Amino acid sequence: MKQYYVYILASQKNGTLYIGFTNDLPRRMYEHKKNLTEGFTEKYSVHKLVYFEMCNDVNVAIQREKRLKKWNREWKIELIEKTNPGWRDLSEDFL
After folding, report:
1. C-alpha distances in angstroms, 90 versus 11, 38, 63?
2. How many domains does the chain have?
3. What CATH number does the domain containing 67 carry?
4. Which member of 4, 41, 84, 93 lies 3.0 to 4.6 Å from 61 by CB, making a disulfide possible if both were Cys?
């Protein structure tokens, strides 16, 4: 069964946030951290994985990503702090 991940990156605690989705979280975090793709995360140094969730359906993951992007900042911060109050870089567990 294929896994998909919706994730939130941060530049630092309460810093700039980025929301994305992927089917390979370790690979995607490596790409973000090494600035292998030009864009927002490279420009603003947003490399810390502070939240992620798994989905088994690509359409559910895409809809969740779109929904989270529309949330206000306060809601996003509450979501992060519910499971990661210290804003630890969760990618350290698998990179």
Report:
1. 13, 22, 23
2. 1
3. 3.40.1440.10
4. 4
